[in-house]
Design a protein that fits this description.
Elements: H1 8-29, E1 33-36, E2 39-42, H2 43-66, H3 71-90, H4 94-116, H5 121-126, H6 134-161, H7 164-184, H8 187-193
Antiparallel strand pairs: 1-2
Helix pairs in contact: 1-2, 1-7, 2-3, 3-4, 4-6, 6-7, 6-8
Transmembrane segments: 44-65, 72-90, 102-124, 136-154, 166-185
Main location: membrane
Membrane topology: Multi-pass membrane protein
C-alpha cells in the first residue's frame, strides 16, 4: 500500500517530538525522587517510562495518517518498549542509555552485512527518494556504516563517563545534528552519482 502524504511539518513533529518531549520531561523531573508501589525511582527513570507511551502515540498517529511505518521506526519502537521496560523493571537507567548504542550498532551491522554481500541495503530503502547509481550507493553505505558505528561507540563512552544531563542533551540534540551534517556533507556524492529520474 502506498504511503499517504501528510504535511511535512506535522510529520517532523511526530518524528522529532517524542525525543524533545523526553528532554523537557527529564529537565522537569531530574531532581526529584518518586515512590511508586513502595519503590523509589529517580526522575530519569520516570522520564524514560513516560517516553515510551509518548513515542508509541506519535508512531500510532504517523501510521494512521500515512498508512505505513518504516522498518527502522518499528525496530526503534520495539527497542524503546523493551529497554524502557527493563529500565523501569530493574530501576536501572543503564538499559535506556544502551538502547541508543544498540540502535546505531544494529544499523551499522545491517548495512555492514549488506556490504559484505556486495549489496547496498541503503539503496533498497532509499532509492525511490534519491535516484543514484550503484557505485554511489555503495560509497554512501560504507560511509554511513562507519558513521553509525562511530555513534554507537560514542554513545557508550558518553553514558559511561558523563552525567545524565550531558547524555540526555547529546542524545536529543548532538547525535541528530551530526547525522544531519553527515548527509549534508554528502552533497557532492549525490551530485556525482545522482541519476535524473525524469
Amino acid at each position: 500500500m502506498a504511503e499517504r502524504q501528510i504535511n511535512g511539518v506535522l510529520k517532523q513533529v511526530l518524528e522529532l517530538g517524542p525525543p524533545l518531549l523526553f528532554f523537557v520531561v527529564y529537565l522537569q523531573l531530574r531532581d526529584t525522587e518518586y515512590v511508586i508501589g513502595a519503590r523509589s525511582y529517580d526522575g530519569f527513570i520516570v522520564a524514560a517510562a513516560i517516553f515510551v507511551p509518548i513515542l508509541l502515540a506519535a508512531m500510532g498517529a504517523l501510521w494512521a495518517l500515512t498508512g505505513r511505518l518504516s522498518r527502522m521506526q518499528i525496530v526503534t519502537a520495539v527497542l524503546v518498549i523493551v529497554f524502557g521496560g527493563l529500565t523501569v523493571w530493574f530501576n536501572d537507567e543503564r538499559f535506556f542509555k544502551m538502547k541508543t548504542t544498540i540502535v546505531y550498532g544494529l544499523l551499522a551491522a545491517i548495512l555492514g552485512f549488506g556490504l559484505w554481500r556486495g549489496q547496498s541495503y541503503l539503496a533498497f530503502v532509499m532509492s525511490e527518494m534519491l535516484p543514484m547509481r550503484d557505485e554511489g550507493w555503495m560509497i554512501l553505505t560504507r560511509r554511513l556504516t562507519a558513521m553509525f558505528a562511530l555513534l554507537a561507540v560514542a554513545n557508550e563512552v558518553i553514558w559511561r563517563t558523563m552525567s545524565n544531563d550531558a547524555w540526555v542533551t547529546i542524545e536529543t540534540f548532538v547525535f541528530p545534528v551530526l547525522l544531519f551534517a553527515f548527509f549534508m556533507a554528502q552533497a557532492r556524492l549525490f551530485q556525482t552519482y545522482g541519476e535524473d529520474d525524469g
